[in-house]
Design brief:
The chain is α/β, with parallel strands linked by helices and 327 residues long. The chain has a domain of 78 residues. Strands 6-7-8-3-9-10-12-11 form an eight-stranded mixed β-sheet, with helices on both faces. Helix 4 crosses helix 5. The longest helix is centred in the middle third of the chain and has 18 residues. The radius of gyration is 21 Å and the shape is globular.
C-alpha cells in the first residue's frame, strides 16, 4: 500500500519586497512528501533551500511574502493560517533543526530550561514530567550525561553535543515531520556521520519524515530516499536517489556530482562549477537560469525557459536535454 502524501507544496511563488517593487526568490516550487520518508533538498548556497523550509513553518522574514501557490499539511493549508494556529503545529507536528545550534539555543538559559519549556508548552505536562522526558530524550540522542547536561549552558557544550540537544528539542513532541537545514555543515566528519546515523535511527524507529537540506549530494545519497535539486529558486531535477545517481540529466546535477570528493579522484584537481548563481535581480523568465554556467548550453537555452520533462515515473528534469529521455 502506497504511503499517504501528507505534505505538499503546489506551484509556490515567494518574493522579497525591495525599494522599487519586489524580487522573486522562489518560482513554481512543487513537491510532496510521504509519511516516513527522507526527502533531500540539495543545491548551492543561495538556491532557495532554506527559504523554502521557512515557508513551510511560517518563519519568513518580514520582507518575504508568498505571492502564489499553496502549502498543504495533513489536509490543511499553512500559508494563510493564523499565527496562533500555526504555532500549535510548529514545534509539535513539524520541528526544525537549524545549521548552527549556537544561534538557535538561548545562551542565558541552561539546557534543561530550554528542553523542558518546549515540552511543557506543547504537551501540557508538569515540570517534573517535562524533566523526566527531557532526560529521556537527551539520552535517546546519545547524550549519556543527560542529568548533568540539564544544568549546563550552550557555551559549555561541543558543537556535536549542541546539535544533539537541538535534535532532542525537535524530537521531544514526537513530530511527524522534521526539517533539518544543513544540520551537519558546521561539524567535523566524525560527528557528521554520527548525526546522520542518528537521523536514520529516528526515521526508522518513529517513522518520522525528514526534509533534509544540504549542499552535499554525497550526504544526500547516504541518507535520503528521494531528492530535489534546486537552482536559483527552481527545482531543476527530482528523482529517487538511486535513479538520480544512475542517470543524472540536468547539467547542474552532474556538476554537483562531479564536485563530490572520492577515492578515485585522489591526486586530481577537484571539479567545480564555473561562475555563480544569479542574484534575485538577475533572474529572467525567458531563459534557462543555468545556461551561463552550463557546458552543454544550446542557443535555445538562452532564449526560452525550459519546461519540466518526465524522464521516468518519479524522475523529472527542467532541461532541454531531458526531451529525448522523456518517457
Amino acid at each position: 500500500m502506497e504511503k499517504e502524501k501528507f505534505l505538499e507544496l503546489n506551484d509556490l511563488y515567494l518574493e522579497f519586497k525591495v525599494d522599487k517593487g519586489s524580487l522573486k526568490a522562489l518560482e513554481g516550487i512543487s513537491f510532496y512528501m510521504k509519511k516516513g520518508e527522507i526527502l533531500g533538498l540539495v543545491g548551492e548556497s543561495g538556491c532557495g533551500k532554506s527559504i523554502t523550509a521557512l515557508s513551510i513553518v511560517g518563519l519568513l522574514p518580514n520582507t518575504a511574502k508568498i505571492s502564489k501557490g499553496e502549502i498543504w499539511f495533513k489536509g490543511e493549508t499553512l500559508q494563510n493560517m493564523k499565527e496562533e494556529n500555526l504555532r500549535k503545529i510548529r514545534g509539535k507536528e513539524i520541528s526544525m533543526i537549524f545549521q548552527e545550534p549556537m544561534t538557535s539555543l538561548n545562551p542565558v538559559l541552561n539546557i534543561g530550561e530550554q528542553v523542558m519549556e518546549h515540552a511543557m508548552l506543547h504537551l501540557d505536562i508538569s515540570r517534573s514530567e517535562a524533566r523526566k522526558l527531557a532526560i529521556e530524550m537527551l539520552k535517546s540522542v546519545g547524550l549519556s550525561r543527560a542529568e548533568e547536561l540539564l544544568k549546563e549552558y550552550p557555551h559549555q557544550l561541543s558543537g556535536g553535543m549542541k546539535q544533539r540537544v537541538m535534535i532532542a528539542l525537535a524530537l521531544i513532541c514526537r513530530p511527524e515531520l522534521i526539517i533539518a537545514d544543513e544540520p551537519t555543515t558546521a561539524l567535523d566528519v566524525t560527528i557528521q556521520a554520527q548525526i546522520l546515523d542518528l537521523l536514520k535511527k529516528i526515521n526508522k524507529e518513529f517513522e518520522t519524515s525528514i526534509l533534509f537540506i544540504s549542499h552535499d549530494l554525497g550526504v544526500i545519497n547516504e541518507l535520503c530516499d528521494r531528492v530535489l535539486v534546486m537552482y536559483a529558486g527552481e527545482i531543476v531535477e527530482s528523482a529517487k536517489v538511486k535513479d538520480l545517481f544512475i542517470n543524472p540529466i540536468h547539467p547542474y546535477t552532474i556538476g554537483l556530482m562531479d564536485s563530490i570528493p572520492a577515492p578515485e579522484k585522489k591526486g586530481k584537481e577537484l571539479y567545480f562549477i564555473p561562475g555563480r548563481i544569479p542574484g534575485l535581480e538577475e533572474r529572467k523568465g525567458d531563459s534557462c537560469r543555468f545556461s551561463p554556467r552550463c557546458p552543454k548550453a544550446q542557443d535555445i537555452c538562452f532564449k526560452e525557459h525550459p519546461k519540466v520533462y518526465d524522464v521516468t515515473g518519479e524522475h523529472k528534469a527542467m532541461c532541454i536535454l531531458a526531451e529525448k529521455e522523456e518517457s
